[in-house]
Amino acid sequence: MRCIAYCTAEQYNLKKLAQFFEEQGAKPKLYNKEVLHVSKYKEGSDIFFFDYGGVVFWDYSKKLENQILSQIVEFGEGPTSTLESDEFSYQIAKNIPKTTLQNDVIKLCSNRIFEKLTISFGFSQSVKLETFEQTLERTVKQTKALPEDLAKHGKISLSRREISKKMGRLFLVRNDINLHTEILGMPDFFWEYPEYESLYTMVSKNLDVPQRVELLNRRLDMIQELLAMLGDELNHQHSSLLEWIIIILISVEISLFAIKEVFHLI
Hints:
Blueprint: E1 2-12, H1 14-23, E2 29-31, E3 35-39, E4 46-50, E5 54-58, H2 62-71, E6 76-92, E7 100-102, E8 105-108, H3 113-143, H4 145-153, H5 160-180, H6 189-192, H7 197-206, H8 209-265
Parallel strand pairs: 6-8
Antiparallel strand pairs: 1-5, 1-6, 2-3, 3-4, 4-5, 7-8
């Protein structure tokens, strides 16, 4: 059987999603205001929608997934530029002592909803993290020439206006990711259901989420350093401009004084 996680938006309106599925005859259930569970909708098993734009399908066909994703577009805010996804296969093996995840294969020790929900938390966080990683990757590619330019020429060959625009874009990227990184921590759900915390931790580690979050933070630090460098360059250009203005004004004043003295001599 198939399980797949997508990240399609910055966030979902879970209340409106719940209303939509109720109108479709389904019975959605909201947990901790952060995840919506829809059970046995059409020909599938379970769907979990997360407030930060993640959705996890359990045992749905690709065709039906695409159909549902197109239906819920209006309930997502800030659609992602690319559709990130992670796909896994799963089976229910009731003879094993605990649920495992290895080589993208999930072995569930039961068919309980909370088992699937816990795993879905890890999967949805992983695809959300992928959107942050892709955003930073694009940002690094777009700005990598700036340090090289500074190293070769001792200055950045951009106007003050262009530098200000670069700083604005970098600040927006850093700010957007910083505002959302709290979703990559332990979900509030596990305060109420601590017995599933170890399963969540196992899934999170298996997907390298802690290491990827650490790398993400390092890249954000690099952006912060780049912002500081651009700020210094902007200040330098401004200071240079002021110096040239002062030099020109002094030159004009000296020229006027010299002309005045010449006329007095005549």
